[in-house]
């Protein structure tokens, strides 16, 4: 292109020279003017041609630069891919990056989990601190006891861990420092630091990976609180009253209840719960064949079974029914005296004084025991009603060194009915895993900074237990009959704090022995308050 422009310029110059020569020879001024005009036009065309040439040259250079840059980028990308593939083929020599953890506080319970939520460890605890007093009135001077002690009691003081491994392996390890007067603990040999019921409350492993028949199954082993009976399956943080009814407490103490060693399984869905466990002794039992103070015993074993469910339910109502069975297959045997006994007893539905008012005393030659019961409950909005009834059998056919000839088996019975109403309108949800009801969660927790007043609940209960059988015979049992009426006011400050105020009126009808009608009964009134926090 440059060569063509130069040639044109030379031609123009020659033409001008020729024109000028011709003009000089002819002397024509018009021709010279015409040639000048043509020359100007040629210069303009030349300038335009040069501009177009420069623009074309710049565009070509830009296109070449862009193509070169794209080629370089593609080359770098291919090089990176080659390096990445090479690195992937080479094993890492250093440790793999640590998985992240997530710290949460569900219901103010400190919980640490892996990022995938498959492994968790949580700190759990509860404290139930009771204060109160009795107005105890023995019927006669022969009544035992003659007085009950008012005061305070750390009913429960538990701290422990709970969590899961790989989603399906669940565990708990909980120790109870409470029961400061429940078991006459102290310096006596074999006594636990906090009383007879203090010790390991939970230490179990549970596998929940099985899901047959459209439900969930848990296989469990260790020390646990068995979900036997409706009242026992309800957490002590959620029960309506400070203590459960005596009829249920006596039943669970035989071969179930808290602190119990057990192995078994439960299956459940939203409507049905079925479970069975083989049980052993509770924590605190003296596992020694040579201990004399306290006396060592052989280890008992038994079994429990329960079927219960929630067949009718809606947004604000539900109906629960169930049946339970318990077998004490082998009672503990006194390894010093070679005797085998069973005792049914309970305190007056309060734990400020550990003295029992009704008791069969030690039933000699007991070879076993059975308890059968039914349970029912219903909710409608803030209202809950609940009841259970129990039948107890004690077999007296043990082959011991001191036989009780001709002693028939014994039969006892008892039950309770209760109701609660949440004045602030909250209801209780259903816990399908235990076939029981959860506690009240206040919709507006108490707060002085513009919050609510928590949830308020009133409740009432009637309970009875009859431990008399075969009165008038030498082989009968005069354990007494206890009837207690309880009224309660509960304040749920928030999801972790609750205050409970209970009033009890009780009557114990009891005769001195199966063959003596001498009155050794009593009456009592009691007022007690519990301060509770749990997480």
Structure description:
This protein has 535 residues and is an alpha+beta fold. The protein folds into two domains: 2-89; 101-534, Porin. Helix content is 19%, strand content 44%. The chain contains four helices and 24 strands. It has helices at residues 2-26, 29-89, 230-233, 246-255; strands at residues 101-104, 111-114, 120-138, 151-165, 169-176, 199-210, 216-224, 260-268, 272-282, 301-313, 317-330, 345-346, 358-359, 368-380, 383-395, 410-422, 428-431, 436-440, 455-469, 477-492, 497-509, 511-513, 516-519, 522-534. Strands 3-4-5-6-7-8-9-10-11-14-15-16-19-20-21-24 form a 16-stranded antiparallel β-barrel. Strands 12-13 form a two-stranded antiparallel ribbon. The longest helix is centred in the first third of the chain and has 61 residues, at 29-89. The radius of gyration is 45 Å and the shape is elongated.
Descriptive terms for the model:
alpha+beta; Porin; 2 domains; two-stranded antiparallel sheet; 4 helices; elongated; disordered N terminus
Helical content stands at 10-25%
Order of helices and strands: HHEEEEEEEHHEEEEEEEEEEEEEEEEE
Structural class: alpha+beta
Total individual domains: 2
Strands, count: 24
Biggest sheet character: 16 strands, antiparallel, barrel
Describe the oligomeric state of these chains in a short phrase.
single chain
